[in-house]
Amino acid sequence: MYLNCHSFHSLRYGTIPLEDLISQAAACGVNAMALTDINTVTGIYDFIKGCRNAGIKPIVGMEFRSGHQLRYIGLAKNASGLAEMNRFLTQHNFEKTPLPLSAPDFKDVFVIYPLENAPDLLRENEYIGIRAEQLQKLVLSDWRNRQIKMVILQPVTFRTKREYNLHRILRAIDLNLILSRLTASDYCSRTEVMVPLETLLSCFSEYPQIILNTEKITADCHFEFDFAAPKNKKFYTNNRKYDMNLLSTLAKQGLEWRYGTNNAQAKSRMFKELKVIDQLEFSGYFLITWDIIRFSNSQGFLHIGRGSGANSIIAYCLGITDICPLELDLYFERFLNLNRKSPPDFDIDWSWKERDTILEYIFSRYGYDHVAFCGTNVEFKYRSIFREVGKVFGLPKEELDALAKNPMELHLTNKVVKQVQEYGMLLEKYPNQRSMHSCGILISEEPITNYTPLEMPPKGFPIVLFDMHTAEDIGLEKFDILSQRGIGHIDDSVKLIEKNRGIRLNIRDTAISKNEATCNAFLGIGRTIGCFYIESPAMRGLLRRLKCDNYKTLVAASSIIRPGVAQSGMMKEYIFRHNHPDKFEYFHPVFQEQLGETYGIMVYQEDVIKIALHYGGLPAADGDILRRAMSGKGRSKAALQKVKDNFFVSCAAQGHPLKLSEEIYRQIESFAGYSFCKAHSASYAVESYQSLYLKVHYPVEFMVAVINNQGGFYRTEVYVHEARMSGAAIHNPCVNKSELETTLYGSDVYLGFMHLQSLESKIAIQIQTERENNGEYKSLEDFINRIPIGIEGIQILIFIGAFRFTGKTKNQLLVIARLIMVNFKPENRSLMLIQQPVKEYELPKLERSEFEDAFDEIELLSFPVSCSPFDLLQTKFRGDVLAKDLLKHHKKTVRMLAYLISRKHVPTKMGAMYFGTWIDAQGELFDTAHFTGSLKEYPFQGGGCYLLLGHVEVDYHFPTVTVTKMAKMPFIADPRYSNSDQRQFKVHGQLREDVSMTDRQPYPQEHEINLPRLKMGN
């Protein structure tokens, strides 16, 4: 009888989570119900499963609304009916047109109109829904005569009075109104609740025809869905046989390319994998991925194949990945095995500049009817909840900011804030809006609108209305088409090297970069700024602690830096064992046999599976459940608990002592959601080596590429500094040398116009285009004649020194610009090209401070170029100790002067602490630790130079200064405003720092983990 139920997937409208909706229906004796969320089918697949488990017949449909106006409700008679509704809504989503007042002529859909929107003529499949409170209208003859086409309409939107208030808050958030401005038409009726079935039927007891019609619709809806059947595109060719023939041919060709003609081990592995791929019918998935890579290569694009796909020698032979699984002993079963029913998961990265070209190829090659992005449900998050709910209650911006930024215990305690907190916490984990998955592409065998409507976001690629978990549940596996700036760094470096030095480098040949001697030397001392994945302060510190000087250690480092390994204490233990391989014992012989390469420490997801299987004796299926839980893909807590119970039973059966088993499972559990598979770490390590090779041998080209790809972990200033330290001469933007991006001439680096935040990008592009077409600019007058720019834009270019080639000072150029522009008419620009040059004026010589340029640069770029930040200090003192000497000062107190690069917030049980990264006066990097106590007295005060007093601790070759006191050092006054006390120190505030916050619980301390280092009892 319930043909119009909303869950919380009716965004900013419904208040009931799906599981709760189904539980309530079961409690009310409901034996059939329809989920009709507003303009979406996001929840129908979980709804179908939940109803089946509860013994309720699921009916799937949609409530069609245009804006906020209810048009009609559609209920699918079968799968074809759902597809009809999906295609209808998709068309309107794409065309951005309002839904019509009357439904289209659906063939397999029942349509229910609300009483107030019922058309005069109804088709056979169309009905009028009437609510219990509207039954009195049947007294009127015109409605009484239409009972034969009426059904019970009892919408469900909320459960309690509290949820009704929550519904009204959601509506106010959606409409961007305060609660008092809502009108009755903006929110639902107070009657939209689920009542016991008997109660509902009693309301309609005098209208048996209406009950009969409702029962008929319920009986005639038969939506069957096979969750187990794969929905991905089945074949690359026409059938499975042709696919396998093509895959085998390509694999054999690739085997010779990768291994030559006499590698028996590789050949045996290839045939073994082909057999499994054929049995699982995954050849089409491999070939589609190969086809995408083939197109990428034809365009000259660089890609990185990573993830568990790198466990496959077939993927290696097809060029999908560049990881040799034999070299690292990567076992194929981690990627594919006969127990796995879903297709493999390839993660493939491209440069962010080239990814859209790849996407356009996929959509055009496999058809817009069959390809779409995965969706995501963006939930209400802590900051947004209090801001949104507070706005609804009419709180001013200052209070909204305080609510959003501070923990609840620091909020005000008045009545309104308490209400904001109460309803805000109810919204936690509620979906707020739909968005596009960052990389997941679905390619389906049947039209994708058989399963969902599509939306077209501004980016221009359609998205489905459910997330990756639902996609996987219904048999649609995603292709991960990712983008990252790291590949842009590599790709652009190679192009710059060829342009600047005439050297054509094949960076795809990983043999030249992996384990290269100079690269290993740089790794060991953490000189990795700009390099993919290994440039952060934490990673550089880890590399130094490990004295990492080879590929396999870097593979391990790429995984142990992950939060799960750090949180469990295994990162610290790995560092200890790596540096002291003779000072530990293996817990058990299984750890030595299976994890000898990582000193008995579980580092990768595979390690956890190995221990679960070989120590715990668990079956392979349980190992896979653990793997999915660790990678964040497993959503069933019940299944994980069952595996845990089985683990201890199995360990006891094998005679393992309980204490040892508990410690081992603690380590397994701590990995959940935060560890890498070994192949993924290896893929990262290979890309890190490619970056590092370029940085080591072609440092200036590499740093320019990093700058042009908008950096990585740090801000642009840091990479400009690194380029200078690598031997580059850094120049401010110049209208005759610079482009939108930073340019390189030999070792001369000209910063791009894109770094002038106040200059319009279209002007920057015009400067470059006009210069390329008609030659360099001869003077400021010539530039003004040729470029449509206002006085503000000219002043920006003058202040940054873009006309220094003229030989005139900035002050002289400003006078000339104003003299020209005062009578300048833009419409005469083309005529002025053939006119007499502007009269030369005798301009006064104006004295300039040597530091004026630096302050211009800070104002326009946010960092100085013409001098070092240290040159702007009032003091000449540069500290007692330099970064290069810190290793000599273990356990000593030092005084250092340094420029702040970045700081990382870390929660601890004592309060917040920070790790800082700095450069000294010689430009060398070093790191600091700032604990809660010192921070209270000596907090960070923004970007700039600080005097630091601290204690040096050398932890496995890596020095850190634990700061006890610090003070921000004053810069000289801005000489441009020597006559204005108010402005003399204003620009100083534009010096930046990189701040990264951490939103997690504090890690346990070493004594709390108490990770055993010696063998435990047998």
In words, what does this structure look like?
This protein is 40% helix and 14% strand. It is of the alpha/beta class. The strands form five sheets. It has a seven-stranded mixed sheet with strand order 1-2-3-4-5-6-7. It has a five-stranded mixed sheet with strand order 8-9-14-11-10, sandwiched between helices. It starts with a strand and ends in a 9-residue tail after the last helix. The relative contact order is 0.06. The model has no long low-confidence stretch (mean pLDDT 90).
Write the layout of secondary structure elements.
Blueprint: E1 2-5, H1 18-27, E2 32-35, H2 44-54, E3 57-66, E4 69-76, H3 79-95, E5 109-114, E6 126-130, H4 141-144, E7 150-152, H5 161-175, H6 197-203, H7 208-220, H8 240-259, H9 264-280, H10 283-298, E8 303-306, H11 313-317, E9 347-351, H12 355-366, E10 371-379, H13 382-392, H14 397-405, H15 415-427, E11 431-443, E12 454-455, E13 463-464, H16 468-473, E14 478-484, H17 485-501, H18 517-524, H19 537-546, H20 551-560, H21 563-567, H22 570-579, H23 589-595, H24 605-614, H25 620-630, H26 637-653, H27 658-670, H28 678-697, H29 699-708, H30 716-725, E15 729-731, E16 743-745, E17 748-750, H31 761-774, H32 780-786, H33 791-799, H34 810-821, H35 829-832, H36 852-861, E18 893-908, E19 911-919, E20 925-930, H37 932-937, E21 945-955, E22 958-968, E23 994-996, H38 1006-1009
Parallel strand pairs: 1-2, 2-3, 5-6, 6-7, 9-14, 15-17, 18-23, 20-22
Antiparallel strand pairs: 3-4, 4-5, 8-9, 10-11, 11-14, 12-13, 16-17, 18-19, 18-21, 19-20, 21-22
Helix pairs in contact: 1-2, 5-13, 8-9, 8-10, 13-14, 13-15, 17-28, 17-29, 18-28, 19-20, 20-28, 23-24, 24-25, 26-27, 28-29, 29-30, 33-34
